[in-house]
Amino acid sequence: MRSATSSHPQFATVVPTPDRLAKPTLSVSPSQADYGAQVYWLSCLPCHGDRGQGLTDEFREVYPPEDRNCWNSGCHGKRPYANGFTLPTTIPALIGSGTLQKFPTAANLHGYIFAAMPFWKKGSLTEGESWQVTAFLLRQNGFWQGSTDLDESNAGSVKLARGLVPFVMRQKAEVQNRSGVLIWGVLIGVLAILILVVLILKKFRNTTTI
Ligand code: HEC
Q1: Does the model's pTM come out above 0.90?
Q2: Which CATH number fits domain 32-159: 2.60.120.620, 1.10.287.1260, 1.10.760.10, 3.40.50.410?
């Protein structure tokens, strides 16, 4: 029997380009973070990027040419239309190393999102949606497994950033600290020996001139 690819060789090498602006699909039994991915797509992605990278030049290229320069448009420029708003020129990344550092715990992150985001329509998310999108951001950053739902009863104990640096990275940082101490120790030792040698030489010279 001939396989599908050999009977249609022209299709064998076609790799579909993923649509970076497509709505994320839900699995059969979606988790809180899966719902959060949809909230993110609807309310956060246009500003914070499809990968949480922030409003980078690379991300703006995903849009059709007429929509790429947000700040020149009537919607988001200095003098926006009636329903538009001026877009800040920098929009922070939310996913990846070094992001979300202002927020010690998931409760802080949720509080901020619920009160201050989406930027142009603060307070428009429901409590549920803001927990969902918080859970999504935690999962994408590796801070939360998503096996239980995140809410006000547990969010205070879910630590972000420094508190949850993966173990391997923590060990590396310790090794670096220790080698720092070692270098200083050696430097101080070498300096002490040098001073000693200079002192001995001085003494030697003094005694020989007498
Ligand atoms: C219109 C653009 C826009 C949209 C839409 C938007 N944000 Fe933001 N977001 C911003 C800007 C601008 C800042 C920086 C605000 C500041 O520093 O005062 C920000 C900051 C943040 C921060 C703080 C990050 C940090 O490290 O300082 C978080 C968290 C955040 N947004 C989450 C969200 C979530 C979740 C959504 C969707 C529900 C969302 N944002 C939608 C523009 C947007």
Answers
A1: no
A2: 1.10.760.10
